[in-house]
Amino acid sequence: xxxxxxxxxxxxxxxxxxxxxxxxxxxxxxxxxxxxxxxxxxxxxxxxxxxxxxxxxxxxxxxxxxxxxxxxxxxxxxxxxxxxxxxxxxxxxxxxxxxxxxxxxxxxxxxxxxxxxxxxxxxxxxxxxxxxxxxxxxxxxxxxxxxxxxxxxxxxxxxxxxxxxxxx
Amino acid sequence: xxxxxxxxxxxxxxxxxxxxxxxxxxxxxxxxxxxxxxxxxxxxxxxxxxxxxxxxxxxxxxxxxxxxxxxxxxxxxxxxxxxxxxxxxxxxxxxxxxxxxxxxxxxxxxxxxxxxxxxxxxxxxxxxxxxxxxxxxxxxxxxxxxxxxxxxxxxxxxxxxxxxxxxxxxx
Lengths: 168, 171
Fold this sequence. Notes:
A: mainly beta; Jelly Rolls; eight-stranded antiparallel beta sheet; five-stranded antiparallel beta sheet; B: mainly beta; 13 strands; 0% helix; 57% strand; globular
């Protein structure tokens, strides 16, 4: 029985304030794997996410999120909110030359017009206080087809490479 | 170096069934992955349950231990720490719009007769109260035996919808 993690497309930005990856979802797959393989920032802050639907980037209050923030140098924190206009805290990172980062994410049902779109991700980054990681879950609470994703930092610019795979 | 997922078993539920079983775990791969997408329930306010299978049948012995951090969007996160249960409780779902269960699991040592069988779980769902939740952690069946699959069922009633897929991780 065939089956695989099939590469769909990649997007890369350098010193950009946001990065969109579009036309990456279809009825070929129901679940997608997203990896971020290169990430550097102009300011220390969170990585954020919105979805792209037929009307463009959805910036309405359709996002619920819960994330466990785990730091090597301090106690863990619970990040949670509902009815936001974005996913606010996928990952955190500093601006040091060696402040690397990584993120892996699964996206469930993005192309199913009768279902909400669900997300779960794991990320790690480094900043002036040390290691910081996030385990995040999220849902976009609109039953509609999602066509792509937009990643952006809280402010400033970033360098980013995003890869999308289908889980067949 | 090439590497990929190899699909071993898949069950697509579009009408009510009491359970879903994925089998085919053997010595071919060291690690297996299970994908559950859009699992929905006939009954409201029920728990999706998981058992490991022995020769294709769910093992109902009181030997399941699990520990999860329960992420949720509406209030403080909790811990779910359970020993000697008859199954692994994957959380809660209802029947209103959007209330479904999704997860990715990795399965370890299932084909090893001399060690326990383990899973890691990363889930995201909306519960019967409409709250975004997700269990993150692991579970074990504390019997040193060969297990060859997994079985999903509800705490009461039937599974109404979902796609359940078992993969092997190639080297």
